[in-house]
């Protein structure tokens, strides 16, 4: 097999990565997690700086980037778009050029995928997508890491996403599952089906695994993991009433978890969760939930991505 080197690469979507490269990052994430658990100190980012740009709120993503970078000797700088010129007075291209002169890397969370792509194109440094309306790739890596901690290597496993099938989290999971050979089912009302072009792209990538889109909750049968996310993503607050109407039948509750037919199925959620809407407290706080391990794994996977690309 070729030696994997990801130095200098950005991560804007998993569509740009090969299976072996994702595998490499998952293995590295396992390594940095083990180091952390043993109390080992490393200095992978000593003398380096990262700009953390946020147009939208964040707890996990911001904290994962800041703590992972800082504890390895790097200097993270949090920049909310309330405070900087990006998008207000200065173009994205010009902001990218300036940040690229001052920082070794950039993280962007915000609305448009085109913004993170422009930052990657014009900054000359690795740029990481910390969530856009289209994708949430660092989340999907932590999700697969958590799946593998419970069931071993990803190929052939079955992951069901229940809820808003067109959102950033569902889309990123579809791509990473297609690349890694995980059977992926989106269970969603037809009005919230993921975009047909992305589904076709993922089906073409999926070697021998299934990418299914269905309104049928019975399709959780046999799932290793049942996954959900909020019904109303950031920036879509005006759609709240419509989403509640469409998605109330798709709540992940114990009765739905039991339809997997497996006692060892796990429950995943990227968080933040609205308990009582997309998931009941019984499930997310119950024995099948791995949502808290998954949140911790954000940090290890983000550290691995930065370590591999810087
Ligand atoms: N899962 C996730 O991205 O959480 P935050 O919005 O808190 O960063
Ligand atoms: N789909 C959610 C994910 C939050 C981490 C949102 O975009 O708000």
Task: Name the features.
alpha/beta; Rossmann fold; 11 helices; binds norvaline; 2 domains; 5-stranded parallel β-sheet; binds phosphoric acid mono(formamide)ester; 310 residues; globular
How does this structure look, described?
The protein is α/β, with parallel strands linked by helices. The protein has two domains: 135 residues, Rossmann fold; 157 residues, Aspartate/ornithine carbamoyltransferase (Rossmann fold), CATH 3.40.50.1370. The chain is 41% helix and 14% strand. The strands form two sheets. Strands 7-6-5-8-9 form a five-stranded parallel beta sheet. Helix 7 links the parallel strand 6 and strand 7. The two termini are 22 Å apart. The mean pLDDT is 97. Norvaline binds next to helix 6.
Question: Can you describe this structure in just a few lines?
Answer:
The chain is of the alpha/beta class. It contains eleven helices and nine strands. The protein has a five-stranded parallel sheet. A four-stranded parallel sheet has the order 2-1-3-4, with helices on both faces.
């Amino acid at each position: 097999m070729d030696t994997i080197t990801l130095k200098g690469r950005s991560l804007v979507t998993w569509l740009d990565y090969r299976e072996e490269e994702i595998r490499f990052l998952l293995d590295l994430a396992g390594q940095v997690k083990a180091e952390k658990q043993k109390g080992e100190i490393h200095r992978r980012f000593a003398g380096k700086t990262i700009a953390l740009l946020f147009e939208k709120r964040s707890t996990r993503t911001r904290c994962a980037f800041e703590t992972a970078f800082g504890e390895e000797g790097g200097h993270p700088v949090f920049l909310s778009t309330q405070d900087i010129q990006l998008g207000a007075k200065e173009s994205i291209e010009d902001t990218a050029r300036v940040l690229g002169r001052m920082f070794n890397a950039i993280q962007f969370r915000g609305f448009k995928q085109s913004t993170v792509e422009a930052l990657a194109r014009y900054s000359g440094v690795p740029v990481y997508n910390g969530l856009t309306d289209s994708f949430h790739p660092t989340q999907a890596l932590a999700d697969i890491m958590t799946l593998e901690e419970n069931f071993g290597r990803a190929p052939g496993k079955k992951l069901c996403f229940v809820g808003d099938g067109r959102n950033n989290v569902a889309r990123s999971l579809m791509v990473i599952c297609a690349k890694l050979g995980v059977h992926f089912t989106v269970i969603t009302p037809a009005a919230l089906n993921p975009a047909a072009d992305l589904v076709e792209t993922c089906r073409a990538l999926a070697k021998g695994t299934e990418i299914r889109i269905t309104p049928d909750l019975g399709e959780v049968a046999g799932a290793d993991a049942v996954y959900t996310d909020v019904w109303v993503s950031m920036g879509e607050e005006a759609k709240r009433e419509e989403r509640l109407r469409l998605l109330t039948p798709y709540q992940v509750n114990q009765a739905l978890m039991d339809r997997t037919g497996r006692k060892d199925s796990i429950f995943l959620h990227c968080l933040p969760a609205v308990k009582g809407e997309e998931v009941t407290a019984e499930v997310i706080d119950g024995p099948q939930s791995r949502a808290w391990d998954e949140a911790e794994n954000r940090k290890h996977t983000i550290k691995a991505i930065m370590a591999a690309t810087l």
